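Write out the 3D structure for:
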Amino acid sequence: MDLDLTEEQRALRQSVGAFALKELRPGVARRDETGEFPVEAFRRMAELGLTGLLFPPEYGGGGEGTLAYALAVEELARVDASVAITLMAHNLCATHIFVAGTDGQKRAFLTPLARGERLGAWALTEPGAGSDAGAISTTALPDGDGWRLSGNKMFITNGSRADILVVMASTAPARGRKGISAFIVPGDAPGLRKGKNLDKLGFRSSDTVALTLEKVRVPAENLLGELNGGYRGAMGVLAGGRIGMGAMAVGIARGCLEESLAYARRRRAFDHPVADFQAIRFMLADMATEIDAARLLVHRAARLRDAGGRYVREAAMAKLYASEAAVRAALKAVQIHGGYGYTRAFPVERYLREAKLCEIGEGTSEIQRLVIARELLKEEMNP
């Protein structure tokens, strides 16, 4: 059931699904094993218009909106979540420029990002600042007609390969989160040192690195948004990004279900396909039900964002439920596969490794619960 998807949205979902199966699936196990970055996949996504789904045509995008973007992310993650998260991190950078940038910044930086001519990264997290994003210690000091950025960033997706980065830094340390600003930093800026891809549990072909900024100079016109308004802007970007994270979790869970259905029909025990056994059927039923519920939450948040409504609570709900449902689906998928599920002979062990990040990235499950409760209490106080 499409629940009012337009003909264009259905066509997009079909085309991205076909691309994922034909062009991503053959190499996904190899990329997971070697950590090979999906350069060709990103190029193809640009050709398909996936890098510009969220942005209007005047800045190089297609203007399809958040729901279309969620559909595309789900289809990608169903096959290769590393490719999906590469696109998502790229879009965090592009979105921040779109919502906070001047027209000149959008034309100079957003347009090549939306067209996929450049790769973007978004640098907020630090070694000592994750959930407490207001605790960042990277500083930006005035330097003539520009700024000098110094500090360390951690877990930056696309960080070593990005052509354009949005970096959060403190411009008024005494003011805490109210003294954080955002800056556009070229990927080849002198003083920007990029670490190697971290040896991660999952998402192994996604580029995830530490960054060191040693007095990186950017011109004054690269200040993104208001001075000391970067934290508020970053929280807005994260709220939208959680819809993408929820869609990715749905895609991973869907991959788990599809693999489990195929295996349960094929694998025999006690002279029967294991799909005949009630215990297996119950697990399949629970997976399918939770996937549908998660997708509905993701699509509700996406539709609200596209309509210009409030969506912070709904995005947090979608991300929370979908990420935890993905972990449950992956655990069930491994159980259904038995001993084979614990080997690399089947993709469900990779799905399990990838699902866990969905409960951590872009705000942990605990942070999502705090956001949801805060929004609920805000509504009670302001009916």
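The first strand starts at residue 120 and ends at 123.
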